[in-house]
Amino acid sequence: MTKEENQDTKTIEESIIKEPKETKKEDKKKEKELGVQDLPGVGAATAEKLSLAGFDTLMAIAVATPGELVSASGVTETTARKIIQSSRSNMNMGFASGSEILERRKLIFRIPSGSSNVDALLDGGFESGCITECFGQYGSSKTQIAHALAINTIKQNPDAIVVFIDTENTFRPKRIIQMAEGAGLDPKMVLSQIKVARAFNSDHQMLLAEKVEDLIKEGNNVKLVIVDSLTAHFRAEFVGRGTLANRQQKLNKHMHVLAKVASIHNCCVYVTNQVMTKPDQFFGDPTEAIGGHIVAHNSTFRIYLRKGKAGSRVAKLVDSPNLPDGEAAFKVVEGGLEDV
Q1: Phi and psi at residue 326, in whole multiples of 5°?
Q2: Which residues pair with 226 in a beta bridge?
Q3: Is the CB of residue 317 less than 8 Å from the CB of residue 119?
Q4: Domain 103-339 carries which CATH code?
Q5: Where are the domains of the chain?
Q6: Which helix (H) or strand (E) holds 195?
Q7: Domain over 3-91 is classified CATH 1.10.150.20
Q8: What is the pLDDT of residue 87?
Q9: Nearest residue to 298 via CA among 257, 329, 266, 328
Q10: Checking phi first, is residue 148 left (phi over 0); if not, alpha (psi -120 to 50) or beta?
Q11: CA distance 171 to 323
């Protein structure tokens, strides 16, 4: 056998040896590029229906319920369960160790309020990846905090987008201009980075919450979602004890959508809540938040706001998974919030 023939056989052998490695790399690429249409039971028509309903990624399907997929695509419940199970297995969604959770929590950021007292109460500010609820009587500065958080989010992250779902006509551009000037920011730039939508009923409010994910998919760097207020429409539309169950179910679904957006996209969700007075309470503060246990359980941090002395406000942390209860006094000035 000649030298040329030996070289030819070597190159053929090398190519045969390399082929499996290349195919493995290709398989890995295919696994990474797995889409909704690749899931079992999902054809082109079903994939299009799911995409129109917002289920256009494996993560969106993995965290969905069978009922949501059934109503979105018209598949049977059995098929919906198979689709969800397949997407979860491809997403490798299982148990994680405490050290892995600790690493993930390093991505969480906190938005300062402007008052060091309030920030100390919340261990640095309003946390991302969860829902923070502020409830209190009218004039307790719930909306003022919402405006301040919008300004501080953009100050902290210049390309951030703030979503403001306005249910009570409380958003005021003039107040944003005052606070932006107080923070040394360009008011026009700040206003352009705040996306405001007025919700006229509870269904419209729920739809707007679902649309936040569409904004993020369009490339908007959404860091803060504000709902002011959470329960105003639900309280007005569902009157009487006979409608209480329906109201709580809708409210629960709405809160779950907000919680999912906060968790998946690591943004802060700030909601304000109305209050009522308990007539059967003779001692202590009779003020109680609307929404009952549904809102309470879905909110990671709960802050009760009340008026203090000489025009000040008091923020009381009433629920947190890791922080002790406490109070912080602050006041609202033209430039935002500051310590008393």
Answers
A1: -175, 175
A2: 164, 270
A3: no
A4: 3.40.50.300
A5: 3-91, 103-339
A6: strand 194-198
A7: yes
A8: 87
A9: 257
A10: alpha
A11: 30
Element (DSSP H or E) covering residue 69 = helix 66-73
| C-alpha pair distances (Å), 62 with each of 66, 85, 89, 93, 206 | 10, 7, 9, 8, 21
pLDDT 10s digits, 8-20: 555 444 444 444 4
Helix (H), strand (E), coil (C) string for 109-173? CEECCCCHHHHHHCCCCEECCCEEEEEECCCCCHHHHHHHHHHHHHHHCCCCEEEEEECCCCCCH
Closest CA to 218 of 287, 163, 274, 148: 163
Cα dihedral: 283, 285, 290, 292 (round 10): -50
Encoded tokens for 6: 């030996």
Q: Which residues of 255-290 are buried (b: 16+ CB within 10 A; e: fewer)?
A: bebbbbbbeebbbbbbbbbbbeeeeeeeeeeebebb
Using one digit for the tens of pLDDT, what is the confidence trace for 34-64? 788 888 888 888 888 888 888 888 888 888 8
Residue with tokens 């001692």: 283
Surface-to-core class of residue 333, CB atoms within 10 Å of its CB (0-12 exposed, 13-18 middle, 19+ buried): middle
Integer Cα distance of 331 and 333 in angstroms: 6
